[in-house]
Specification:
Elements lengths: L1 E3 L5 E2 L1 H7 L8 E3 L16 H12 L5 H12 L10 E4 L3 E5 L9 H5 L2 H11 L6 E6 L3 H10 L5 E8 L5 H7 L7 E6 L3 H14 L6 E3 L6 H20 L9 E6 L4 H11 L4 E8 L4 H7 L2 E3 L20 H8 L4 H14 L1 E3 L9 E5 L2 H15 L5 H17 L4 E6 L7 H7 L8 H12 L5 H9 L5 E2 L1 H18 L1
Parallel strand pairs: 5-15, 6-7, 6-9, 7-8, 8-16, 10-11, 10-15, 11-14
Antiparallel strand pairs: 1-2, 1-3, 4-5, 12-13
Helix pairs in contact: 1-5, 2-3, 2-9, 8-19, 9-10, 14-15, 14-16, 16-17
The structure holds pyridoxal-5'-phosphate.
The site of pyridoxal-5'-phosphate has 17 residues, from helix 10.
């Protein structure tokens, strides 16, 4: 059973997955997990068997056979098996590389599983309507959602991305998906503009014959698959004798919506010996202030950065952690979230009482320098998001002298952000995108994933709309799908 952060609602997993949000804007949370899950017998399990065991532990309204089927469906994609996470050791850290999926970013880890859970949840709840997934993206969610949901029967996926902010490769990649059930638009504006159009559509569009839903990271179905790699990484470090069973480790996580790091927090609650979780932010350091200064303030100016997937002012999943900090008192959470909506800021001094989290951020210059330094000193190529996690891990180490083994969660293939890499490595930026990517490859000897060249060769040109037009066009698109369903 799940609970809501803002009311005494209970829900089954399938309901929570289909609904996304709880009744009055609350988020669904697990209420009955504890550290008995983590046992030495997990050490012998493959990634898939571990996934199965975790899903069985967390999910109570799906039968064994169906769970097994979901995992097979999700993990047997010829293009990507989520258990192909890889590791790179450098002088100080272990990098956990989560970017081998269809969108070359860690969001595939969840969005390769969620669509299958979604379809199964519909079956279990006897819903036969087609699904319309409506999503705003700052880059990575779009491609990951398109890749994941395009394989589902009877499902339309609509993606809006801003012309400002997404990288050239991210844009090409979204426009490389082709099917009459995939609808992709660029909107003149930034991510918030896209988000607002989507919110307005959810509020104002009436549908009768379709299930209108979203794929964003507040869905509990996205968190579940993300817990697996925290547990698996720990077990892997033990198996490779880098740490002893029971010894603590740290993770540094590039953080935007607090989804990835919240999965790490759940791994800790399930018993994985984690000492510190580093909340690594870019110059939009809302979370650093929330944890270190005790002020969570969301009416700031968004500064577009070279780590666009973390350009965020409202960090939605933080509410789930706040709920635990306030002793799971949903009335208090509700009050707090109401004042956040009204005053655009709240006092979060209760957050820094936690010994588990450390919060830090990197400026743009710190990010460039870290990419260069990691390449020069460790011969490893990382993307800007991962560079931020590295910078904050170094800063943490200097400040605390804590020698606990540190895992850096590496969230994107560096070639997704080639222009930032060229700047960081002081290489020229002329030529088309493929030439620029190959320049980095020649210089670093870090191979370009061949699937990226395919995207480059196969993408279509973008379809661009003004904000006003986007609302009208999409309202019609959704209305038409509803009418013919
Ligand atoms: C989405 C994303 C993040 C942020 O993850 P959250 O779960 O939103 O905190 C970090 N890096 C990359 C590359 C991403 O795509």
């Amino acid at each position: 059973m799940l609970k809501s952060t803002r009311s005494n609602t209970n829900a089954t997993i399938t309901t929570a997955i289909l609904q996304g949000l709880a009744d009055n804007g609350g988020l669904f949370v697990f209420n009955n997990i504890d550290s008995t899950f983590f046992q030495p017998d997990l050490l012998s399990l493959s990634y898939r068997k571990l996934t199965n065991k975790l899903f069985r532990y967390l999910i109570d309204d799906i039968e064994d056979d169906d769970l097994q089927y979901i995992i097979e469906q999700s993990y047997n994609d010829p293009n990507f098996q989520p258990d192909t996470v890889s590791y790179t050791s450098t002088s100080n850290f272990t990098y956990l590389n989560l970017y081998h999926g269809n969108s070359f970013a860690f969001k595939d880890m969840a969005l390769s599983v969620l669509p299958n859970l979604f379809t199964l949840s519909k079956q279990i709840q006897n819903i036969n309507k087609p699904t319309v997934i409506l999503t705003a993206t700052s880059g990575d969610t779009g491609s990951a959602a398109l890749a994941g949901f395009s394989k589902q029967p009877n499902t339309y996926t609509i993606v809006l991305y801003p012309t400002k902010g997404v990288s050239e490769f991210q844009e090409m990649q979204m426009n490389a998906f082709q099917s009459d059930k995939l609808i992709i638009y660029a909107v003149d504006g930034n991510f918030d503009d896209c988000q607002n159009i989507v919110k307005q559509l959810f509020k104002e569009v009436q549908v009768d014959n379709v299930l209108l839903s979203s794929a964003n990271s507040i869905n509990i179905g996205r968190l579940i698959p993300q817990i697996v790699y925290y547990i698996y990484s720990y077990l892997k470090l033990v198996r490779e004798n880098i740490i002893k069973y029971g010894e603590e480790i740290n993770f540094s996580v590039p953080t935007g919506n607090f989804g990835n790091i919240y999965a790490g927090y759940l791994a800790k609650r399930l018993g994985v010996p984690i000492k510190k979780l580093l909340i690594s932010s870019n110059q939009n350091n809302v979370l650093t202030d929330a944890f270190n200064k005790g002020i969570y303030k969301i009416d700031r100016t968004l500064h577009p950065s070279i780590s666009p997937s973390m350009d965020i002012l409202i960090s939605s999943n933080l509410e789930r952690y706040i709920y635990d900090c306030l002793n799971q008192d949903y009335d208090k959470v509700n009050e707090l979230m109401e004042s956040l909506a009204k005053d655009k800021q709240i006092d979060t001094s209760f957050l820094n009482k936690s010994n588990l989290f450390y919060a830090g951020y990197a400026t743009e210059e710190d990010t460039y320098q870290t990419i260069r330094k990691v390449f020069q000193e460790d011969n490893h190529l990382i993307d800007p998001h991962t560079a931020i996690a590295t910078f904050v891990a170094n800063e943490y180490h200097e400040k605390t002298k804590d020698n606990t083994h540190m895992v850096i969660v590496s969230t994107a293939n560096p070639y997704k952000f080639s222009d930032a890499l060229l700047d960081a490595l002081h290489l020229p930026k002329d030529g088309n995108l493929l030439e620029r990517m190959e320049r980095i490859e020649t210089y670093t000897k870090f191979p370009i994933d061949p699937r990226m060249k395919k995207v480059y060769n196969e993408h279509l040109s973008k379809k661009q709309l003004s904000k006003e037009k986007a609302y009208v066009v999409l309202k019609k698109v959704i209305g038409d799908i509803d009418a013919k369903s």
